[in-house]
Specification:
Number of helices: 7
Structural class: alpha+beta
Mean pLDDT: 86
Strand order of the largest sheet: 3-4-5-8-7-6
Order of helices and strands: HHHEEHEHEEHEHEE
Shape: globular
Strand content: 25-35%
Largest sheet: 6 strands, antiparallel
Distance between the termini: 35 Å
Helix content: 25-40%
């Protein structure tokens, strides 16, 4: 199978390489778990750097399509062994789309703010430069059920002019070459204060599911600090664990 990158295209090289590799591993030659050619050969065939190639491979490893073994190489995962959904976390838009739930944005605001100390510590930055803050109030067409606040590391390169109505992590990857690889989450229970109650159209003191999400890229750099406030009667958070 001939692999060719279009170096004149506006599509980032790593995105093109990822798509070509997806087509390659779906071919009959690789469906049974064959090893990919080594990175030196692949990068030469594609006429891209090994760093760019690794970025594409990392995304496919994250998606459960490839697996790396030290001293062996990168192997295609057999179809019967694809990773479970618990390993493939998604953005809110992707989660709702997968469940067939129509979503409406009731509010969407972008601003630049000085990071609080906890944000500066998380990102490993100074607190004297502004970072992008994204606020979204979302829910079903009949009413909101979640309020999000997201803060982004300057390394992401956001300008504030992006289309934030599209799935966030897809936008980060295609517009800025940032692959959201790891999500670490903290979940707790709160009662709605006056602000959250007004946003979610519920009563002050109503139960709220509070989720903190810490997102890292494929180089393990922190890229997003996300706070989510969910109406408890409109959302169930399910955790699926698999013993291996």
């Amino acid at each position: 199978m001939k692999l060719k990158i279009d170096h004149k295209s506006q599509v980032p090289l790593h995105v093109q390489a990822e798509e070509l590799l997806r087509r390659l591993i779906e071919s009959q030659e690789y469906v049974d778990g064959k090893l990919l050619p080594n990175e030196v050969e692949l990068s030469k065939d594609l006429n891209i750097s090994r760093t760019t190639l690794r970025q594409s491979i990392n995304k496919l490893v994250y998606d459960g399509l490839l697996v790396r073994k030290k001293g062996v190489g990168t192997r295609v995962v057999e179809s019967k062994s694809l990773s479970s959904k618990s390993k493939n976390w998604m953005s809110f838009s992707q989660e709702m789309s997968a469940r067939g739930i129509p979503i409406k944005n009731f509010e969407l605001h972008v601003s630049w703010v000085y990071p609080e100390k906890k944000l500066a510590n998380f990102f490993g930055i100074k607190d004297d430069k502004k970072i992008l803050k994204l606020v979204r109030l979302r829910g079903r067409p009949e009413g909101p059920f979640v309020y999000f606040e997201s803060y982004f590391h300057p390394v992401v390169g956001l300008t504030g002019e992006e289309d934030y109505k599209t799935p966030l992590y897809e936008m980060l990857e295609h517009a800025h070459g940032i692959v959201a690889m790891t999500s670490k989450e903290e979940i707790s229970a709160l009662i709605a204060d006056e602000f959250i109650a007004a946003k979610l159209e519920t009563n002050i003191g109503a139960p709220i599911l509070f989720r903190k999400r810490f997102v890292y890229d494929n180089q393990d750099r922190p890229i997003e600090y996300n706070l989510g406030f969910y109406k408890a009667d409109s959302f169930v958070y399910t955790v699926e664990s698999k013993r291996e």
